Amino acid sequence: MPNGDTAVVPLFRTMKRLPGGLMLIPLVLGSLIGTLAPGALDIGSFTTALFKDSALPLIALLIFATGTQVTLRTGGPVLATTGVVLLCKSIVPGAAIVALGAVVGPDGILGVSILALLTAATNANGGLWLAVTGQYGDERDRGAYIAGAVNDGPFFALLFLGASGLGEIPLLALLAAIVPFLLGVLVGNLDGQWRATLRPVPDIVIPFFAFALGTGIDLGDVASGGLTGIVLGVLITPVTGGLVYLGYRLLLRRGAESGLGFAAGTTSGNSIATPAIVASADPAFGPYVGAATSQAAACVLVTAVLAPTLASWALKRGGALTPRQDTSEAPA
């Protein structure tokens, strides 16, 4: 019988070997189930609860567990890293897209509306970020996951459209997104045993919530996004991930580790719902919802493949593609 250190088939080791594999492989598998057999996971009870409806609670647990790893010693660097990721991944691209919209109007360019651009570019796949930084980063990078909690979903799209007089800013939703992280910071600093206990949580929950998110992605929608959605996805990683890379290199002075920034160049699975949410706030965007949704779905899958690939390439080129040991403090 195999013990905990051996495997008949090295499933987990193979997933860990692929950059972002803990997130990417279950996401793709889930999308296949969601496309080919969408009703297979609707049989109810624990099956539906775990494999289809678990994304939000498991992500919340991950945010809490990540917070417990942020100590008084690492809090400053974590906040600095989070700020740089938000600035370079969401704020700078969002401002540029709004400026473009002022020139070309809401129709956007080349069949990609301003709504689709904001949906795809201003949020990030936090699970994939944790999967990559969990392999090659440290507590500063993993703690910056909170940037994904802030920019996930419609918040920044509404924020930037609101700057033009459209939509509402869901401040309560923003607060709700960061409360688990703040509670985790509190608990981890009060009791080091909780910090030690929750340290393995990312490896446990990422594959499960990635699969659940994947079941909500219909590959038919990805195909209907056509070439425009695929091209948009191909551009998101080098452009927005490249900005975070520059932020790591120029603002955080992380040197060879700056390649981690490309792991932020993704589109979150939750972004697929953003166009409809924006249109509910301002019906003027209704005509753009269908195309923007399918283009966002394409971006989710394309960036989930491209971002970890570019990050590992940049880290390897800098000589930093070496799995790191956790440097968090030992439990008290």
UniProtKB/TrEMBL annotation:
Amino-acid biosynthesis as UniProt keyword: no
InterPro entries found in the cross-reference section: 2keto-3dGluconate_permease
GO MF terms held by the record: 2-keto-3-deoxygluconate:proton symporter activity
Short name of one Pfam family: KdgT
Keyword Transmembrane helix: yes
This protein's UniProt keywords: Cell membrane, Membrane, Sugar transport, Symport, Transmembrane, Transmembrane helix, Transport
Record-level GO cellular component terms: membrane
Coiled coil, from the record: none
Transmembrane segments: 21-43, 55-72, 84-103, 109-132, 144-163, 169-188, 200-217, 229-248, 260-281, 293-315
Membership in a protein family: Belongs to the KdgT transporter family.
Name under which the protein is recorded: 2-keto-3-deoxygluconate permease
Organism: Haloactinospora alba
